[in-house]
């Protein structure tokens, strides 16, 4: 069974045609990998399906715009994976 | 259809909220300035307008399901296939189903039939966000009422 990071890295590599070896837990999906918001919709769709969750992109966007969060909080891959794990765990409980 | 005004959907035939599906009708006008250029002597509905028609059906589906909480905007089109020509004075059946309702976006599969034959289909992604103006929300509500979306919502919500 692959880890959350391995699954997310594979999704990003496939969706955005980025070599897998360039994707690390310390990668910022936007600043380091050059993924824009439109590409991230495709990534979110694949992540939602793979983990049975709904990434709260709308609320993340609101928090970023309000200055209540940093881009790294959501889009640094190790942080993104931690949030996916939390959402997946919550989905399994409900 | 009022091609020049991008009003593609004439009426909602069916809305099933549980299955997240919508079916609508769209009549291609016999005459339109669009056909003067596309093409002279061989009038065809442009493929981009067929995609727009599928996007609008998807949009009305999203609006019906979220009860006007947000406005959908077309973001991406995948696997679009134009399977045959669509000529003036054609009666089209437009369908869309929700593949995934995410946060801030939705993914639909849409297709158009003519005379029982599928003529085009695509997977569409639409961003959903707060209505950027009250005028737009008012227009969308009025248009939804006009095409029977509200009535269909009340009947099948």
Protein topology:
The complex is a heterodimer of chains A (94) and B (157).
Chain A: H1 4-16, H2 37-51, H3 57-65, H4 71-75, H5 77-93
Chain B: E1 11-16, E2 21-27, H1 34-37, H2 47-66, E3 71-82, E4 91-101, E5 105-114, E6 117-129, H3 134-146, H4 149-156
Antiparallel strand pairs in B: 1-2, 2-4, 3-6, 4-5, 5-6
Structure overview:
The complex is a heterodimer of chains A (94) and B (157). Chain A is mostly helical. Chain A has one domain (4-93): ACP-like (Non-ribosomal Peptide Synthetase Peptidyl Carrier Protein, Chain A, Orthogonal Bundle). Chain A has 5 helices and no strands. Chain A has helices at residues 4-16, 37-51, 57-65, 71-75, 77-93. In chain A, helix 1 (4-16) crosses helix 2 (37-51). The model of chain A has no long low-confidence stretch (mean pLDDT 93). In chain B, a hairpin with a 4-residue loop joins strand 1 and strand 2 (21-27). The radius of gyration of chain B is 15 Å and the shape is globular. A 6-stranded antiparallel beta sheet of chain B has the order 1-2-4-5-6-3. Chain B has helices at residues 34-37, 47-66, 134-146, 149-156, and strands at residues 11-16, 21-27, 71-82, 91-101, 105-114, 117-129. In chain B, 29% of the residues lie in helices and 38% in strands. With 157 residues, chain B is an alpha+beta fold. The longest helix of chain B is centred in the middle third of the chain and has 20 residues, at 47-66. Chain B has one domain (3-32, 40-135): Thiol Ester Dehydrase, Chain A (Roll). Chain B has 4 helices and 6 strands. At the A-B interface, helix 2 and helix 3 of A face strand 6 of B.
